[in-house]
């Protein structure tokens, strides 16, 4: 029996990759220095895994930005807008991911530079991948020199490894192709994979981990046949393939998998219940069966004794054909629990991060192969103590949830009635302009928060300093002539962690970072118990901001589903009940904001799509309770209070009815990277409420010109009536600098004013006509 890993966090113990990337982008490192630091990170990752007991290490799981983008570069699939430019490979990689400006100051518009490739969620996770762009005449130019170099690098260090490669069907599924059925491109893609296989053979690679996570989906017959075609056509040589799936069970595709000419399969048995005996009985008797028994996406310590009892008969049956691994890549887990020095000791004893998950596998293997159980009995004791710990239970919270009814999740008036009342109360112009919430998190702001947390400044000094930042942000927005303002969120480190710090039932780590995209890392809070609000969380900051202007300032909250999805969630309570607890806490906050005369409140739900199960047959059940939780959080808002929500990087056509069911007065969405193509979903099914499609991609350094944004808005007007169209960026602006932000927003406001001028030359459309 072997234990192996599918992937390790690439960011480093203390986010070294993030700081290396950003230093390179600022020009503080040359390419050689950047690559050397990345090499050191890889070696550190391999050493950590080997010392924890992993016997076969992944290689190729490391990337400078994104592993799907790595695959595109292996195959030479580069968007045409970058093909004519002169690049080195590293800069090409970053330009595809981040966009390119032809101006040395970074102030060019998308029209003058090159727009970044689209970015969306990796299945039902908070990791974002760079979407491959396929063309009708797609050419392949294979170059896996970087992967081969890493293989040799690991060999030189004496590590036993297997390369990791995203499989051809999943890669094709995840890509963007607007000119027909993506399966038309399968032969072309397979040509590229055949070349990769040949080069891996030449480098005497033994095992290849080939990831096909779409096997967790409910694939139609065409895609199932494509699997058979692909894996029968590919000539493996001496390569042994371990076909790897995760995030869902593949019981529904077992017969398909069993028909493929491979040597091993890895199955996630954590994310969904699965029938292990049926797996053994169905798959060929000579295959290696790898079971993902340690949860790669959550942070709870495993009950190794329970796992031993489940796996011991499987081990006896399979013996050397049984391999053990985490359920999925540990990319989604923090790196090392040993770094946490401030966590409550009882809670810390309930947890395991990536390094500890590797150690769990080693402990489990030792118990299975020797029959000595004392080590796993001792290790599992805190798991059993957690189940009865007093701090996870709050009877008052449980009672509030039991008392909920159907009416608890509905506002009294419908949107049509609310729209008229809000129009009179707010008096906003046609094409109102706003932003999504956050403004640049400058080094001054970050240093200020750090000093406060360390006790170097008092609470009063901190409050005065944050108020100064808010006042400056309001002043800048007024000078830009935005219509609906925000306070800028200088007090917030993260849109979920900030609330987790103030809610009972949450724990916060120091170093529990995971990669969201590129250099963006998040530190999810840990939901360990029943959730309640201690006191108002945002009211003082929002009220202070509103005092600085006569224009409306939005209250800014994170929605219950997003807090759920972007936290590490307790595994001893149904997700629906956890979400209801969060929604009740947010509802309490909304009530206090309303009492403080805040008339516009934004409740962000960017994660609602990613929370969906992989299997389509399970979607509706999830969407029913997810949308109800959002409505529950907002149900106390009277008609004159305008509720906004925001979503980004979602496949809206999958969930449009659910978006309608949220019943937000205004929805803002990400659309600029897709050139408003996202609105196709809203064209197919009428969206009845107000909509703000983003006209400014905040994840790119490019600054869009006025004409570019006017063009995008005119595209949006083909789907959205003028009296329901808002103008806003794609997302929050915390990662951008003030100089570029102000230029971009000034252009955005000018674009809105140009449209108003053109439309106001005729009589404005009555509100009632859009509501009929």
Explain what the structure shows.
This protein has 772 residues and is an alpha/beta fold. The protein folds into two domains: 2-10 and 47-63 and 120-388, TIM Barrel (Alpha-Beta Barrel), CATH 3.20.20.210; 413-759, TIM Barrel (Alpha-Beta Barrel), CATH 3.20.20. It is built from 29 helices and 19 strands. The strands form five sheets. It has an eight-stranded parallel sheet. A five-stranded parallel sheet has the order 15-16-17-18-19. The termini are far apart.
Which shape, going by the Cα principal axes? globular
Report the structural category: alpha/beta
Give the tally of structural domains: 2
Mind telling me which CATH architecture of the largest domain this is? Alpha-Beta Barrel
- Approximately how much helix is present in the residues? 40-55%
Lateral arrangement of strands in the main beta sheet: 1-10-9-8-7-6-5-2
Largest sheet: 8 strands, parallel
Uncertain spans, ≥5 residues at pLDDT below 50? 102-111, 766-772
Q: Which topology of the largest domain does CATH recognise?
A: TIM Barrel
CATH class of the largest domain: Alpha Beta
Number of helices: 29
Number of strands: 19
Key phrases:
alpha/beta; TIM Barrel; eight-stranded parallel β-sheet; five-stranded parallel β-sheet
Short description:
With 772 residues, this protein is of the alpha/beta class. The chain has two domains: 2-10 and 47-63 and 120-388, TIM Barrel (Alpha-Beta Barrel); 413-759, TIM Barrel, CATH 3.20.20.
């Amino acid at each position: 029996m072997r234990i192996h890993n599918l992937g390790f966090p690439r960011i480093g113990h203390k986010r070294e990759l993030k700081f290396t990337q950003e230093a390179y982008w600022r020009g503080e490192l040359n390419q050689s220095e950047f690559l050397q630091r990345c090499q050191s990170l890889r070696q550190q990752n391999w050493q950590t895994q080997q010392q924890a007991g992993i016997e076969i290490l992944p290689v190729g799981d490391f990337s400078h930005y994104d592993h799907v983008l790595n695959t595109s570069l292996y195959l030479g699939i580069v968007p045409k807008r970058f093909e004519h430019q002169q690049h080195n490979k590293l800069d090409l990689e970053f330009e595809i991911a981040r966009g390119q400006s032809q101006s040395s100051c970074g102030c060019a518009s998308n029209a003058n530079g090159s727009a970044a490739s689209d970015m969306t969620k990796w299945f039902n996770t908070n990791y974002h991948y760079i979407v491959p762009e396929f063309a009708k005449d797609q050419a392949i130019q294979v170059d896996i020199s970087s992967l081969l170099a890493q293989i040799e690098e690991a060999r030189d260090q004496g590590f036993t490894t297997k390369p990791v490669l995203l499989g051809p069907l999943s890669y094709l599924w995840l890509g963007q192709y607007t000119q027909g059925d993506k399966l038309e491109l399968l032969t072309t893609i397979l040509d590229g994979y055949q070349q990769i296989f040949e080069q891996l053979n030449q480098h005497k690679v033994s095992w290849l981990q080939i990831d096909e996570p779409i096997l967790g989906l409910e694939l139609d017959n065409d895609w199932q046949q494509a699997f058979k075609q692909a894996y029968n056509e590919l000539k493996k040589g001496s390569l042994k393939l371990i076909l790897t799936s995760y995030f869902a069970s593949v019981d529904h595709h077992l017969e398909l998998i069993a028909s493929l000419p491979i040597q091993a399969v890895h199955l996630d048995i954590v994310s969904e219940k699965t029938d292990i005996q049926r797996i053994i009985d169905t798959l060929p008797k000579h295959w290696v069966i790898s079971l993902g028994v340690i949860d790669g996406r959550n942070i709870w310590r495993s009950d190794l004794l329970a796992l031993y009892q489940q796996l011991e008969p499987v081990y006896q049956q399979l013996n050397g054909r049984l391999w053990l691994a985490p359920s999925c890549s540990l990319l989604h887990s923090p790196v090392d629990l040993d770094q946490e020095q401030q966590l409550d000791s009882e809670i810390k004893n309930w947890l395991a991060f990536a390094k500890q998950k590797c150690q769990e596998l080693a402990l489990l293997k030792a118990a299975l192969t020797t029959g000595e159980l004392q080590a796993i009995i001792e290790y599992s004791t805190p798991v059993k103590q957690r189940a009865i710990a007093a701090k996870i239970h709050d009877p008052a919270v449980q009672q509030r949830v039991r008392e909920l009814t159907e009416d608890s999740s509905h506002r009294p008036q419908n949107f049509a009635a609310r729209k008229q009342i809000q129009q009179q109360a707010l008096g906003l112009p046609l094409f109102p302009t706003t932003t999504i919430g956050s403004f640049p998190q400058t080094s001054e702001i970050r240093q200020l928060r750090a000093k406060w947390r360390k006790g170097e400044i008092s609470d009063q000094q901190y409050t005065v300093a944050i108020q100064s930042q808010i006042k400056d942000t309001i002043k800048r927005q007024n000078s830009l002539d935005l219509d609906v303002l925000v306070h800028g969120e200088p007090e917030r480190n993260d849109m979920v962690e900030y609330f987790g710090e103030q809610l009972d039932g949450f724990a916060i780590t120091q170093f529990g970072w995971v990669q969201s995209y590129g250099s963006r890392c998040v530190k999810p809070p840990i939901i360990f118990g029943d959730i309640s609000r201690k006191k108002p969380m945002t009211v003082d900051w929002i009220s202070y901001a509103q005092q600085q202007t006569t224009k409306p300032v939005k209250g800014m909250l994170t929605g219950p589903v997003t807090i759920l999805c972007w936290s590490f969630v307790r595994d001893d309570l149904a997700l629906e009940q956890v979400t209801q607890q969060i929604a009740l806490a947010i509802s309490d906050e909304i009530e206090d904001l309303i009492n403080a005369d805040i008339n516009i409140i934004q409740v962000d739900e960017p994660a609602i799509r990613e929370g969906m199960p992989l299997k389509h047959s399970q979607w509706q059940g999830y969407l029913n309770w997810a949308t109800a939780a959002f409505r529950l959080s907002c149900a106390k808002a009277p008609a004159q209070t305008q509720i906004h929500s925001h979503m980004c990087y979602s496949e809206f056509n999958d969930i449009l009815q659910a978006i309608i069911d949220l019943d937000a007065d205004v929805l803002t969405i990400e659309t600029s990277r897709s050139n408003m193509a996202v609105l196709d979903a809203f064209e197919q099914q009428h969206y009845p409420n107000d909509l703000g499609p983003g006209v400014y991609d905040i994840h790119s350094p490019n600054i869009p010109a006025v004409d570019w944004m006017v063009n995008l808005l005119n595209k949006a007007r083909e789907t959205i009536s003028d009296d329901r169209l808002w103008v806003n960026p794609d997302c929050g602006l915390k990662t951008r600098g003030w100089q570029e932000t102000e230029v971009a927003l000034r252009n955005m406001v000018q674009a809105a004013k140009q449209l108003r001028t053109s439309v106001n030359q005729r009589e404005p459309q009555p509100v009632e006509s859009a509501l009929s």
